[in-house]
Amino acid sequence: MLNFDFYAPTRIIFGKDTENEIGALLKPHAKKVLLHYGGGSIKKSGLYDRVTAALKASGIAFVELGGVKPNPRLSLAHEGIALCRKEEVDLILAVGGGSVIDSAKAIAMGVYYDGDVWDMYHDGRPIEKAVPVATILTIPAAGSESSGDTVITNEEKALKYGYGSPHLRPLLSIMNPELFFTLPKEQLGYGVADMMSHIFERYFTNTTNTDLTDGLCEATLKTLMKNALPAKENMSDYNAWAELGFAGTVAHNGLLGMGREQDWACHDMEHELSAIYDVPHGAGLAVVTPGWMQHVYKENVGMFVQFAVNVMGVEASFRDPDAIVQEGIRRLREFFVKLGLPATLSELGIGEDRLEEMAKKATKAAFGNERPLGGLKPLYWQDVLAIYNLVK
Ligand code: NZQ
Ligand code: ZN
What is the pTM for the complete model shown? Predict the structure, then answer.
């Protein structure tokens, strides 16, 4: 096990009707907030009315900025930064999914920075402070409600980059599984693929003596797999959504990666797809992940046998580890298909013409400073291209 420093201070308020507490929860922290949201689902569901009523009841003033798109855009963050400065808001309340929360975090750090907030994403420039962010989560997926990360698309440059800082961990996040009932079914699939990927990125490692986090990763993966299809069958199944929501936060608050080298190659490969083709993050991950497994598993067959047996329920046998791994990958693909997820790039509308360009951008070979992706097996642009080709 490696040394680590774990600090995940986000307060999680979980359960039915908890969004109505938002005014009382924010009262000690803010006089004026920016209410930030997406394309309108919160207005349709009535959540917007409940949240604004709770803020008013607690005497908290607010200004609002809606219109966050999935794969949130830098240009809207610029607008939010200007608005926060002009209105002197002291907290940003993000009501929505990962895109809204990530956009809120971009605004939160941009307010205190004189240059373009894109510099953080592009150069990894450290930050000293950010406006506090609180969230009301409406889709279990990105884990941004308890992570210090934000991912933004620079639409002019067709680049999608992530950035992380402890200053971006939300102050508090409300998670009421009832808010997930209105999700379109395909978003459920995207969310589950993303949450599983957040665990895979930490689980598949060459670090040894990681019994506790191995077990936590496996339990969280199995919880997601057990509850995903029941929620898809009955989109109002509170108990299934409760398990998915809690698992999604555990998947990405950092705990599962402590003491182990992490990977993140699948996320880097997926961000290229979203940046150019604007595909949903979870859909891209469902496509690249099995291809990645196929390409890298020989680097650490034992780890992939453990996954196949402990998570995918493949029968253990001692003579043919490759067959066990192949069955594990097959079952994962099958599970994704049952969730309605795509299995190939072509199903995402992605042809072969830009695969090499994306492989070179993902590894930065395109910019003359190639840095291999991944931890389990370093992936150069030729590896990334081979993976894209495996799943085309
Ligand atoms: O915009 P509205 O109208 O609200 O509709 C949204 C959006 O169209 C809809 N939706 C959300 N909750 C709903 C709902 N519709 C009906 N009822 C509800 N309760 O769902 C659509 C997708 O929303 P989005 O926020 O984009 O989804 P998600 O949470 O999957 O976020 C994806 C983004 O998060 C980033 C991804 O790259 C992607 O840009 N990630 C952020 C991470 C982080 N900050 O830690 C880590 C992840 O790896 C991920 O990269
Ligand atoms: Zn993700």
Answer: 0.98
